[in-house]
Amino acid sequence: MFVFSLHYLAPLDEIDALLPAHRExxxxxxxxxxxxxxxxxxPREGGMIFANASSRDxxxxxxxxxxxxxxxxxCSEVIEFDPAFVAAGLEQLRG
Length: 95
What we know:
Organism: Qipengyuania algicida
Helix content: 25-40%
Order of helices and strands: EHEEHHE
Protein name: YCII-related domain-containing protein
CATH architecture: 2-Layer Sandwich
InterPro entries: Dimeric_a/b-barrel (IPR011008), YCII (IPR005545)
Mean pLDDT: 95
Number of domains: 1
Distance between the termini: 6 Å
Number of strands: 4
Pfam family, one: YCII
Family: Belongs to the YciI family.
């Protein structure tokens, strides 16, 4: 499992202008089976995406295809996570 930690590099008005494209991208990656959770950081300085990918290279490719990253208004840190424990109902997190 991978966690993408996005950090905004531009003012929120520039982020908001790209939000429709970002949401379409999230939905497409979910439909393709990659993303299973996402949301904003609080305070609103970026976001988090929980993803399944077959390799770090694939995860990096996905993270770098985010319209926010492509436009240079955000950067994304890709963190690989190997859960040692998951609660009942969250077994998919084990990959």
